[in-house]
Amino acid sequence: MKAKDEKTETDEITAIEEEIRKTPYHKATQGHIGRLKAKLARLRFDQEKKAKGGPKGLGYAIKKSGDATVLLVGFPSVGKSTLLNRLTNAESKVAEYDFTTIDVIPGMLDYKGAKIQILDIPGLVEGAASGKGRGKEILSVVRNADLVLIMADVKKPGRAEIIRKEFCNAGFRLNQKRPDVKIEKTNTGGLNIGSTVKLKRIGQDEIKSILHEFKILNADILIRENITADQLIDCIMKNRVYVPALVILNKIDLDGKPAPGENTVAISAKNGTGIEELKGIIWRKLNLIRIYMKRAGKEPDLREPFIFRKGSTIRSVCNYIHGELAKDFSFARIWGPTARFPGQKVGLNRVLRDRDIVELHKD
Known about the structure:
The protein is globular and about 70 Å long. The longest helix is centred in the N-terminal third of the chain and has 23 residues. Helices cover 31% and strands 25% of the residues. The protein is built from ten helices and 16 strands. A hairpin with a 7-residue loop joins strand 12 and strand 13.
């Protein structure tokens, strides 16, 4: 009976997707399309919850390590194992047939003083988001990733788009930020919808239809950017994951270098072409910075930097060293890109930049 229910649910998802594709979008159909999209999101979410409640022991338990975690995904036999071995100290098995990697293989990239964990996961197949090829278990690893590397054959670049779609269907938003929408449920008063910008991609009827589908009947909604119906649904759903991504087109040694695109890099994992460029892009996509520490009256230690994310402050450094250090903090002195002059005196909220040198002083 359970298999029949799951088949019916999958059929319903397929039917809704087809109806959305066939329905022309205009003012008269906005509400209907919004309701369909919301229902589709709910069905996919319910399907995902059922999959998580399945047999134990089928998932992938990954322990995060290092300063950041990067996930390497792609169709089978695209060269992921070869690339992992190029970037890290891993010894992932390499072969000329599909599904060589049947487990998650970790490796560690040492770059600019940072230790970046890279995970080579089993090859994805089309339909992974709905469970095909153990896709749900594979995609579950993504929730702990700081960056996703989507690898495709340079002769089959369209496969990268297929993978992006699978991620989207599974609730992942690659190279996106959470829309600036605030929804506060109330007990009475209906739906009060306000916006600070002109909404050109979604109408009032569509907004209300989506909220009603999620049983939100009373709420104050403030929209601060020109969102779509899909983005509003993302704000309502609790399972969306926003993560940066990079497309890697492999095997340029066989097909020449393609025209570069946004968030795309071309390499040859086999002969090493483009690997150093790739390392630099990974560093930038992770938004990492190096901070060097200095003791009063001594030279700074430039051998082993502390690794932080862009936007980190002196407070971040204090908390990293010791949880109580910020309480005893008096001031800090800094040298480097952030400092107006060498040894500038700053406070806890000072934002740091790559290669800044920090000297902490306590009360």
